């Protein structure tokens, strides 16, 4: 009986020793050549040298404006703006590019980005609102050899857009106006009806005033048969007419004789060509303010005289 009791007590003690392991020896207790238990080695976090440390002991301060890390966008291209209308035939959202089928059947590739302002029926919109098949008009500028959209207006109403160009011919029998658009290498045909409003300055004139070489601005829409309809035609200049432009010289190319003057009144830029045989004042340069008397020859403005306002020069 005593032997049985002793065996039970010894078994209980042995089980207790297995269930509660002894504390691992400290490095001081370690014997030479005997490795320490694995639980003695703990990894110590190491802060990378490139990671900034907080001086206050808290987490590193985050950048308040992540957008400030992005490079600044280039400024909008400078130059003469041209308004062109048509239908979006193809839209590439990856490369931010659209193919516009302008009135008359020509196609024009136009680039856009976050600098482009987009409107829908006069209200501010975004690039997500652009759809293939949309009828739009685009305020375009040349950016090198590419055409860039400064503004895009989506029009769900009947009006399609505007354009500017020179009359090539007008047929009263057909009610057809053929013009050369500023951005289209091909002739553009527009339908003129008795409802088309034709103006020259403040007065209304007859379609007979649409002679070849006349510079015009056209507001147009589309008929149910797909033909382009001129709703308003404004006569801007007729061959031989004289004009005076005042403003700042924003571009000058003496080799080609091209002078670009930006008017402070309407903020529009006008291309004026200098007579290659004429002597040019050495003070003429970009940034000066000038007054130029010109005549329209049916395709461009030719400078007849030029005066530099020295007091306004930078």
Keywords:
mainly beta; OB fold (Dihydrolipoamide Acetyltransferase, E2P); 6% helix; 3 domains; 1 helix; 7-stranded mixed beta sheet; 314 residues; 19 strands; 43% strand
Describe this structure in words.
- The structure is a single chain.
- With 314 residues, the protein is mainly beta.
- It folds into three domains: 82-154, OB fold (Dihydrolipoamide Acetyltransferase, E2P), CATH 2.40.50.320; 162-237, Beta Barrel (OB fold (Dihydrolipoamide Acetyltransferase, E2P)), CATH 2.40.50; 242-312, Beta Barrel (OB fold (Dihydrolipoamide Acetyltransferase, E2P)).
- The chain has one helix and 19 strands.
- The strands form three sheets. Strands 3-2-1-6-7-4-5 form a seven-stranded mixed β-sheet, with no helix packed on it. A seven-stranded mixed β-sheet has the order 10-9-8-13-14-11-12, with no helix packed on it. A five-stranded mixed barrel has the order 15-16-17-19-18.
- Strand 8 and strand 9 (176-181) form a beta hairpin.
- The model is unreliable at 18-44 (pLDDT under 50).
What's the quick description here?
Helices cover 6% and strands 43% of the residues. The chain is built from one helix and 19 strands. The protein has one helix spanning 2-19, and strands at residues 82-92, 97-102, 107-111, 117-120, 123-125, 135-143, 146-154, 159-171, 176-181, 187-191, 197-200, 203-204, 215-222, 228-237, 242-253, 258-262, 269-273, 289-296, 301-309.
């Amino acid at each position: 009986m005593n032997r049985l009791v002793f065996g039970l007590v010894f078994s209980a003690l042995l089980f207790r020793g297995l269930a509660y392991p002894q504390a691992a020896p400290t490095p001081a207790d370690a014997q030479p050549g005997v490795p320490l238990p694995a639980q003695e080695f703990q990894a110590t976090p190491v802060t990378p040298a490139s990671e900034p440390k907080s001086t206050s002991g808290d987490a590193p301060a985050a950048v308040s404006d992540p957008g400030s890390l992005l490079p600044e966008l280039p400024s909008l291209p400078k130059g003469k703006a041209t308004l062109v209308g048509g239908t979006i035939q193809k839209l590439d959202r990856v490369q931010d590019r659209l193919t516009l089928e302008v009135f008359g059947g020509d196609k024009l590739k136009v680039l856009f980005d976050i600098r482009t302002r987009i409107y829908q029926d006069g209200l501010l919109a975004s690039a997500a609102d652009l759809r293939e098949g949309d009828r739009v008009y685009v305020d375009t500028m040349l950016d090198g050899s590419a055409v860039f959209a400064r503004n895009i207006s989506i029009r769900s109403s009947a009006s399609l857009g505007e354009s500017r160009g020179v009359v090539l011919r007008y047929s009263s029998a057909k009610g057809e106006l053929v013009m050369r658009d500023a951005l289209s290498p091909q002739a553009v045909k527009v339908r003129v009806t008795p409802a088309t409003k034709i103006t020259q300055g403040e007065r209304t004139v007859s379609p007979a005033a649409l002679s070849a070489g006349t510079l015009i601005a056209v507001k147009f829409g589309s008929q149910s048969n797909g033909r382009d309809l001129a709703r308003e035609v404004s006569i801007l200049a007729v061959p031989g007419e004289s004009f005076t432009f005042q403003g700042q010289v924003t571009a000058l190319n003496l080799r080609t004789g091209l002078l670009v003057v930006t008017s402070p009144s309407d903020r529009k830029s006008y291309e004026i060509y200098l007579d290659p045989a004429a002597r040019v004042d050495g003070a003429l340069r970009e940034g000066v303010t000038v007054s130029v008397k010109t005549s329209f020859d049916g395709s461009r403005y030719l400078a007849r005289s030029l005066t530099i306002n020295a007091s306004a020069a930078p």
